[in-house]
Amino acid sequence: MRYGNTFRLRPTRGRSSEVPMSLTWHTPSAMLGLQGKTLKMMCIFGGNPLPQVSWSRADGSMLDLTRTKFGPGNYDMRIENLEEADTGVYMCSGSQQGNMPITRTFTVDVEAAPTWVTEPQDVTVAEEEDVVIDCRATGTPSPHIEWLINGIALREREPKENQRVTEGKLMLMNARRTDTMVVQCNASNIHGYIWSDTYINILAIPAVINEPAHTDVKVIRGERAMLHCHHTGHPEPSLVWFKGEKKLYADGRYELFENGSLLIEKAMMRDGGLFKCFVRNKYGEDSRIYTVIIRDPTRIVHAPKDVSVRTGQNAVMQCEAVTDPAEASNLRYMWKKDNITLDLTNPQLKRQNGGLVMAKVALADTAVYTCMATNGIDSDMASARMLVQAPPGQPSKLTLLRCDKNTATIAWKFNISQTNHSPLKRFFVEYSTAYDPGNWYKMKTVGGNKRQTKVELSSFASYTFRVKAVNEIGPGIPSAPTMDACETPEKRPASHPKKVKTITDTTNVLAVEWEPMPLIQHNGPGFHYVVMVSKEGGQHCPELHLK
């Protein structure tokens, strides 16, 4: 690779020469910016030492530093997102020690493309009403407004005598059906334009009520009654309610709504009868008849009562209601359990008149039961709680705390919520041994406030334990057996056989009988019976050893 000529530079000591400051270049003095855009002004100063450059507004107001940015050396200033308030005179100023400052002014004008002040909206009116389309826009310079109808400039159309244009508004006086049209408004200046399409709809719709020709309205005495009279028409129809031949007004007992509905507050017997809704506009009229029927309320006269019942028994919840005689054939009953409707096809459930019979209740049947009586117009309801009492729940966490020679200490857990709606009375402590596995025997009764006890044991046995809780209904499910067995050491039997007797029904033969001792009382290996017999006078016979 070949390079050009090589030069060696040797710096020399000395003082550089001073050069007076001068303004070498600047942007035009008259600047035009567009709203929302960025405007840049620049002043290039020369001299040695380098001049210091600053920017300001000629009227002394502060620059908006959130939108004003400066380039290297402050030679240029940019105003971002221009606003109308940025219009004015700006100055750049260069300063150099020992010389007078040099300034340059810039006159900035900010203009804007058109934006809406009032954008035209679609209009729907009736014949012979006036229409006003408002189309106003702002911008710099001020936008020019041009109207078009169905795509043709207004100035190119035949003028209509009911049509006026003034100050950004197009007016149609005494509109006719033929004045249905699409109106376009175009607002423009040198920086752009905005455009809007507006639909003028001239309607002529007769008054019509959208309800059945005759409606029966059943109302409960003392309750509200709402009579609906939904209607259409253009222009908006006038509406009047009648009771018989009398016109109704909002007077506290009657309330008239904008949609045409009539509210009767606290209906009384005298409110029964014929009502009429009548509507009218210039194109037609319509009416509907309503027969208001006042009924007495439905009431539960024999309500269900709170009840306690034992598991497996039958339970009865009573319910009887009365209603208006004219609606008696429509009276129906429905039952809920904790607000969930019961399926009365369930074979466990049976309806007895209005009451509810439940066969062989279980603990899960504990709930709040609600009877609802209805005739299809109104309803009444009453609730009661049923508690199903059952044997207590299962003790838990049975633990062998201590296993000694002839005693054991056990503990267990039992929550008061497991009493199943019957007071807890006691606990049964039961045992099983390796002599008779799978069979359990009661060994101790403990008070219901205890959760630990000490039990006496026989010798030479392997014990496991379990506990049952007992309430007024009876004992519950036993706990799981202890995980660990308690094994006791051997020792002599603690007692002799019971019910020992002799039988002497044969000459020279003596028979001896006794009740066998259970294995748990053997207390050690090699258990056997020793039979000792003494002759009258003190002479002993040989001992007999029997297993």
Structure description:
A hairpin with a 7-residue loop joins strand 40 (424-433) and strand 41 (441-447). The strands form 14 sheets. Strands 2, 4, 7, 8 and 11 form a five-stranded mixed sheet that branches. A five-stranded mixed sheet has the order 9-17-16-12-13, with no helix packed on it. Strands 19-27-26-22-23 form a five-stranded mixed sheet, with no helix packed on it. The model has no long low-confidence stretch (mean pLDDT 91). It is mainly β and 547 residues long. The protein starts with 18 loop residues before the first strand and ends with a strand. The protein is elongated and about 160 Å long. Helices cover 0% and strands 53% of the residues. The protein has six domains: 19-112, Immunoglobulins (Immunoglobulin-like); 119-203, Sandwich (Immunoglobulin-like); 205-295, Sandwich (Immunoglobulin-like); 299-386, Immunoglobulin-like; 396-487, Immunoglobulin-like (Sandwich), CATH 2.60.40; 498-546, no CATH class.
Features:
547 residues, mainly beta, Immunoglobulin-like, 5-stranded mixed sheet, 48 strands, elongated
CATH C-level class of the largest domain is Mainly Beta
CATH topology of the largest domain: Immunoglobulin-like
Straight-line distance between termini? 125 Å
CATH superfamily of the largest domain: Immunoglobulins
Compute the number of helices.
0
What's the main sheet like? 5 strands, mixed
Helix vs. strand class: mainly beta
- Computed over alpha carbons, the radius of gyration is 55 Å
**How much of the residues is beta strand, in percent?**
over 45%
Q: How much helix is in the residues?
A: under 10%
Count of folded domains: 6
Provide the CATH architecture of the largest domain.
Sandwich
Instruction: Give the low-pLDDT segments.
Output: none
